[in-house]
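Entry:
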Amino acid sequence: MASQAPATIPEDLLVEIFLRLPTPAALARAAAACTSFRRLIKGCAFRRRFRSLHQPPLLGFMDAGGFHPAEAPHPSAPLAAALAPCAEDFSFVPPVVSSASYFSSATCSAHNFLAGIVPDDDELPRWRPRDARDGRVLLDWVSLNPRFVQMWGSPEDGSDVSVLMDSNELADHDPGAHATWNKRERCNAADFHLAVCDPLSRRYKLLPTIPEDFAARPEERLFEFVPMLAPTAEDESFKVICMATYQTKLVLFVFISTPTTREWRMSTFPIFAPLGASSSFDCVRGCFYWTDPWEWIDFLIVLDTGSMRFSYVDLLTGYHVQLRNLADQSTGRRRRLSAVVVGREGSIEMFSLVGQEGSFTLHHTSLQNDSQEWKLEKIIPLPGQYKDYSISKVGAAEGFVFFRGAPEGIHNEKVDCYSLEVKTYQITKVCSKMEIFFNRKHALPYFSFPPLLLEQPIDHQGI
């Protein structure tokens, strides 16, 4: 009897099988098996379905010191190691100014300029990550050290002016050098340069600077300027919200990129609470939530990125009253570094860090829709080999809370970075990295699918 040819699996059944593969790595192995499998997996419709059904893998953390990939035995370690050269390289985004024009920028130290000190290559302006979401990274054109808006007296009329300074200049600055600053060097929102990129596909979009008529309209000194990458609606490519804090008002500069529109919009609010660089924010279901990183506050401040309206959530109810009065023996002060996470069935949930008698715990609390009181869900003990802990500046993302432990609690040393899965409370070490004091709370968890599952770029700026 003649042998029968092997049955061919229908393509629609193959698609269903591939969609059920547990990880992008397993899908990549399937794509490498034969050309027909690869053709199906590279199809736009399949890639969209796979991304909608699977959570993007955590590849590591980004900060001013670079990209810190997940390390073995973390399940994302092989993928993170393979993609690390792309994730840590933003050189494909064109520079805003040349290195030769560094001394004329607002980030330059007037004292060093007068002394003829040439900065190291690491101090030259470059693109640095400020926020990351949905595989995209928001970049700011800054030097290695983060910039602060600093107040100095004007030699012209004795009034205060806003000047952009690097963190190292705050300590090294010569008080007499401020006489060299003039009116042209006063800082406003138009002085900041931003870009949005996908480092894995090397696509980018340079944002236009905020129009001068918008930037000058508050007519007050600028205290803080914080750019954020917001969740996008279905008809948007991306959305950037820049929060500018002035003496009596808060101004939101919003850039919405759609297939037909790319422009800045501005909304002004009366100042009502300290936000920005002095606060910690998390993004949950299209809203930004702010908490103070050092002290307990009485409320959460919420910005709905759809309606662009602010609201409050009362923190001082239920278990939080007891938590606020619990002394933090690790610091001698009532410090509660908190993260807001995606709630179950519409609830808001928080993780608050508490240190007592040499041990550290995370207190998981929730606020159900039908209740006005915070309820304790669980107290999670943290690994005991560390002398100090901190929750990341952007403390929660994609169903995880991120924290780091320092062996001796000393800055500028190697720390271990961890994730905690909200649903299971599973704690996993992600990587170790060198701690940078001024960027300690700015490490950004970076999630992304590998290039195999990303959309094919239309051109180098198509994002």
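Residues 98-121, 143-147, 166-185, 437-441 have pLDDT under 50 and may be disordered.
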